[in-house]
Amino acid sequence: MRRSALGRTARLATLPVSFAGRTTLGVGKRIAGRPAAMVLTEVQQRTADQLFRVLGELKGGAMKFGQAMSIFESALPEELVGPYRETLTRLQDSAPPMTRRMLESVLTEELGEDWRDRFARFDEQPVASASIGQVHRATWADGTEVAVKIQYPGAAKALRSDLRTLSRMARMFTVLAPGVDIKPLLKEIEERVTEELDYSLEAASQEAFAVAFDGDPHFAVPHVVAHTPRVLVSTWMDSVSSLAHVIRDGSRADRNHFGGLYATFLVAGPGRTGLLHADPHPGNFRVLDDGRLGVVDYGAVARLPDGLPRPMGELLSRGVDGDWEAVAAGLREEGFLLPRTRFDADALADYLGPFIEGARDEEFTFDREWLRAQAYRVATPTQENFSNAFKLNLPPDYLLIHRVWLGGIGVLCQLEATVAFRGLLVDHLPGFDPDGLETSSA
After folding, report:
1. 149 and 170 share a domain?
2. 254 and 178 in one domain?
3. DSSP 99
């Protein structure tokens, strides 16, 4: 384990060293007369290539951070993201598996020396791998087909070590997405590590969703069969692919269909379960051959016993109606604007208005071009953007909601899906009732 830790640190350490070399080379090229934009593009491409290659070879926090970053791919300029989009999407759906010896060690420690007696059959080749664990197909002793999620040995130590190292490299990641503050993302991931490492907590959340969506014609959630803190056994769910594959190869009809289901699950889930699925990357959303969307991985959840906050829907309604004075007052009341902060309503409309376009019309097409335009608009250092951005605060109660909202929009833009988003909000977001629309039943 000591040698493995040293190897992980060494591989991560190559990132800032190589970045410094590329940056120095870029300065030399500019002195030699190469255009600054062209040089920056080369640095970004080379940085991204090495960054995601190294992250993909690691597990723990490095892999989890890579997955978190990959859902924002659609906000990056096409000339930068094009060469490494395949690497980014691969991070959403896979990671190298553990060795057989490691597998035996974890199962013996968690289920006992006789762990094989619990299964009628156990496939040692994993069917999926992710940031802190991998999944095997098996048959439980009673004949139930199951998926066995097994945590990597040393995952806890690896997560914390990776995140500490990555936090010291935050400046490097801003090369990929100028204007994006990476440190809060890393801090939030670190805060959720303890919960995600305990599969017993995940089992409770997953079963709550499984019960709430049992028999649903549009969604499938596996039931929990057994669990320990590092092993989770669930009913097997046959899927033909994931949203990551739809992003890469899906037809227009599939993009719209599964994009609509994806948005519905994220928005409707809290009202049905009191929980928000807070890990929206596409690998967790499985495409079933009957057209349903299967949802896995409940390690990260936000507990919302009353569903999504009603003020969120009310503020969105006022924004759609164009009452930005009321929006400013509501933001102040909810803690998004600090008490003594002054904020011009017209400036607020200019700054936030474009982000709520999806709630204005009956249907909205989310696409990369739209998201890039918004990312560029708020990241471009004008006097208005600078002052507005630094006046907005994010209350702790909204941290995970904010993550899911932005991440979900990022995935919808990757899918380039046309979604009846306004109606979805009317049905499932408490307080969202622009123009006095009557809400239909959930």
Report:
1. no
2. no
3. P
Whole-model pTM over 0.85:
no
Tell me the β-bridge partners of 286: 242, 294
Domain count, the chain: 3
Q: Within this chain, do residues 270 and 227 fall inside the same structural domain, yes or no?
A: no
Six-digit token string for 166: 């990555």
Residues spanned by the domain of 139 = 100-155+194-235
Give me the helix-helix angle, 310-321 and 324-334, nearest 10°.
160
Residue 287's beta-bridge partner residues?
A: 241, 293
Q: Is residue 213 a contact partner of residue 220, using CB atoms and an 8 Å limit?
A: yes
| Claim to verify: residue 278 and residue 422 sit in the same structural domain | yes
318, 257: one domain: yes
Q: d(Cα 120, Cα 140) in Å, to the nearest integer? A: 6
Is residue 165 domain-shared with residue 289, that is, in the same domain?
A: no
Tens of each residue's pLDDT in the chain, 442 residues: 444 544 545 554 454 444 444 433 343 333 344 433 333 345 555 655 555 555 555 555 555 555 555 555 555 555 555 554 555 555 544 556 788 898 999 999 999 999 999 999 999 999 887 667 899 999 999 999 999 999 988 777 766 666 666 666 555 555 544 444 556 656 666 666 667 889 999 999 999 999 999 999 999 999 999 999 999 999 999 999 999 999 999 999 999 999 999 999 999 999 999 999 998 989 899 999 999 999 999 988 989 999 999 999 999 999 999 999 899 889 888 888 777 777 777 878 877 887 788 999 899 999 988 887 877 776 655 555 545 554 667 677 787 888 888 889 989 999 999 999 999 999 999 999 987 644 443 3
Rounded CA Rg of the chain: 23
Same domain, 111 and 248: no
